[in-house]
Amino acid sequence: MFGGAVASIWAASGTLYVAWVAFSAPGLSPLEHARQVLAAMPFIAAVVVVLGVPLALVVDRFCRLRGWGPRRTAAAFAVLGALAGLILWAALGRDPLFLWPAVVAAPVARTAAEPLARQRWALGVLTAVCGGLVCATTLMWIAG
Description:
This protein has 5 helices and no strands. By secondary structure, it is an all-alpha fold. The protein is globular. The mean pLDDT is 84.
């Protein structure tokens, strides 16, 4: 599940970047969009840990009890992502920008969780970079 959480943070960040570039402010430079995603990473990580991981554990258990294969499990996680995205959409001012990262991140996280668990070096690198970015951005928020 740890690999899924890390993959989810990366997928949500990447989707948020694409959504900002395509929909939110197309006139800004790609570097400015990247700065916005970096500033949002502590929020993304908190949502994944607080909302995503508990819901993912329940859905994963449900899928395993039913004996579902990888495709049905990924579909169930896509529904989970849509539900989490709708919760964020309703809680954060009905901005569709908050819906898409959750929809993309949930099935990507479930699909990537087991391969990342087998590839310890990849999981370690992704975790270190993700943790470093989240900590650095949190410190920038605190410093003002």
